[in-house]
Design a protein that fits this description.
Layout: E1 5-11, E2 14-20, H1 28-35, H2 42-56, H3 63-76, H4 79-91, H5 96-106, H6 113-128, E3 132-134, H7 135-147, H8 151-163
Antiparallel strand pairs: 1-2, 2-3
């Protein structure tokens, strides 16, 4: 099984996406993926799918982002939770990000720190799969990471991976 590390480079107010093969030991990033093999509840998956969906809807959901969202739902068996996230956003598109922040803040106590970091990092990586991350999307993810108390760890992971 091959593992890939996602690296983000900041150029022209966008993070560029590149994939390389790691050498040596797994990085902290892989430790999170390997150690988080526990079963996730529907509420956990709602948080995860809402987090990814709200970032992808930040500029309006395009086809490429919808494909990534559907793949993430498929990988996690979370189509019901993705539909819930779509309904949540559709209730009032204008206030969706602020409402999502409030909802995700309520869930902070129910998710351990490692899971919160995994979710926000997965969102960062999924967003980078389209080839770039806009400055507004990066700022939104950093706000959510700060709300969840994992902003420093996320920044360290991104910096470490972009320096590799």
């Amino acid at each position: 099984m091959q593992h890939h590390v996602n690296l983000f480079y900041f150029r022209c107010k966008k993070f560029r996406f590149q994939t390389v093969k790691p050498t040596g030991y797994f990085t902290f990033l892989f430790y999170i993926y390997v150690s988080m093999s526990e079963v996730e509840t529907s509420e956990d998956l709602k948080c995860y799918m809402l987090l990814i969906a709200i970032i992808f809807h930040y500029h309006g959901l395009d086809e490429e982002e919808e494909v990534i969202l559907n793949r993430k739902a498929s990988e996690n068996g979370a189509f019901e939770e993705l539909n819930w996230a779509y309904e949540f956003i559709a209730e009032d598109y204008i206030t969706a990000f602020d409402r999502a922040r409030d909802h995700l803040m309520e869930m902070t106590d129910k998710l351990d720190k490692a899971k919160r970091l995994k979710y926000i990092n997965d969102t960062w990586i999924a967003n980078g799969e389209k080839g770039y991350i806009t400055e507004m999307e990066a700022t939104a993810m950093l706000k959510l990471a700060r709300d969840w108390g994992v902003d420093k760890e996320l920044v360290q992971m991104v910096q470490k991976n972009s320096a590799s």
